[in-house]
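re: that chain from earlier
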Amino acid sequence: MTRGPDLPFADRIDAGKRLAAALNGYKGQDCVVLALPRGGVPVGAEIAAHLGAPLDVLLVRKIGAAFQPELAIGAVVDGGEPIVVRNDELIRATGTREETFTAICGEELREIERRRQLYLHGRPPLDPRGRIAIIVDDGIATGATMRAALRATRMRKPGRLILAVPVAAADTLNSLRKEADEVVCLATPEPFGAVGYFYRDFGQTSDAEVIALLARNHARRRSNVGS
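^ sequence. v structure.
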């Protein structure tokens, strides 16, 4: 689904509210909202609150080539048992040895563990198996991180896999459609440039904000269970 709301969005909260409205059909269903930190978390928090769904972070770390760290030869995605997504063509093209790939992967896994402890204080990750998994970010430009997130989540066997973003580059979004069962994007403006162009306030989301939003969602869910 692609729509064209008034742009720019005021901020990530505004974008999240508008995206939540587009996902209203999933209200009351067994959904989990998995947001890419940090910018995707305020957007995901609005969706989770609207749908009455649990919210978690989906931690994705790029595995960069040893001598070209900006070139992604794979990615590792957290979720209890981390999943490694490989780009075997680039691994061969860069001459990356398996032990080198494993070592870089190990470094990124340690960073993922550090961030999970920081954000969730030991709470276990949400399991999307058999549920509607909604993968959220504040926008998509190149799509490399989102592609890894979708592929890893698919391997965890959700009942339905949904990609939801406020804004994305049209060609990138089209290339991601085969990775999800449904794509919900509010706007695909051309020319695209960068995600931040489509927000009036695109200030960096802090770790403290991520922690607070996740804790608020967790507290709300515990309160609902107890009521």
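The first strand starts at residue 31 and ends at 35.
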